[in-house]
Amino acid sequence: MIKLAADLHIHSCLSPCCDDDMTPNNLVNMAYVKRLEAIALTDHNTAKNLPAAKAVADARGLVFLPGIEVETREEVHVLTYFETVEQAMDFGEYIYKHLPDIENMPDFFGAQFALDENDAPIYEEKRMLLQAVTLSIEEVAAACRARGGVPVPAHINRASNSLLYNLGFIPPDLDFASVEVYKHSPIEGVDLSPYHVIYNSDAHRLQSISEAENHVFVREKSAAGILAFLREKK
Predict the structure, then answer these.
(1) Is residue 13 scored above 90 in pLDDT?
(2) Cα separation of 220 and 22, whole Å?
(3) In whole angstroms, what is the distance from residue 10 CA to residue 175 CA?
(4) Contact criterion met (CB below 8 Å) for 92 and 71
(5) 3-state helix, strand and coil shares in percent for the chain, rounded to the nearest 5
(6) Mind listing the pLDDT tens digit for each residue in 123-142?
(7) Which of 40, 105, 131, 190 has a beta carbon 3.0–4.6 Å from 8's, enabling a disulfide?
(8) What average pLDDT does range 90-103 have in this prediction?
(9) Given this structure, which CATH class describes domain 2-231?
(10) What is the CA 102 to chain-centroid distance, rounded?
(11) What distance in Å separates the CA atoms of residue 209 and residue 5, rounded to the nearest whole number?
(12) Where are the domains of the chain?
């Protein structure tokens, strides 16, 4: 097995409440400076900054896992990971169709910019991305898997937008193999032994990106290798 220093939950300036300097080049290069070997970009309910981030990560020699953090109808955040940007973009279009048409308030939440690989603006997303889609957690997980992806419930022990706080338990019928745990909150009375547990930064600013302290264990150093780890039952 190969041990990879990874941060699989990072946001870009396309996510509201994210610093404007979280551009594809800045976030990838910060990950490189911090000696990370694998990263995932997981913006809220969109995949539009994945092509640029993938291009920069490839140039830096980092394993890049395309992702989206979806907020389900239950207001639970689910990380959805894919092998290719194309799969993630297709899923992103599906998610966007189920996103309520509510206009963003940039003065309050922050602007939402899609950029190219040189960090030049492509467009400003006007629809509010940080809101629940009309799909249930079951529907999101099924649609992700139908496109070859792996759903992983995000920060399951955080006091908002999490499985344990919103639903009170990890539904066994959703068949998750991996869960993300938030390091800075307690987690008691929950048996995590059936799951791969991952730790990430959920970074919305450059300094929050993880140091090389959290790891995934893979058979090959690639997006497919990370997906296999996240998908396989313990």
Answers:
(1) yes
(2) 29
(3) 24
(4) no
(5) 30, 25, 50
(6) 999 999 999 999 999 999 99
(7) 40
(8) 98
(9) alpha beta
(10) 22
(11) 12
(12) 2-231
